[in-house]
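Consider this:
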Amino acid sequence: MRSRLLRKEREFHDLYLPDIRQYAVTRMSRAINLDAPLDDVKALCVRHAIAISTIEALTSGGTRVVLLNPDGAERVRQLMKTKIITTTVVRSSMHMARQPQPRYR
């Protein structure tokens, strides 16, 4: 009796409840390191209407760009797939100075 009930529950689940795994979306980082000049990255984002959160030149060469949304980041990855830097990069130590001051009470 119990196994028949479990089978019926499984059948109901298969018929009426969607498989959640098919809707799972993995979001990638909004930050991208590119082997391209700062002006080229800005021009690409303007041309394709991709909003930039912050952009900076890397000390080790290239540009680090953080975009406002993951969809824009994915679009930049598609457009500049040959220019993505996958190795460790050196950022300027001043990047922390550009962060807003925390507001504590």
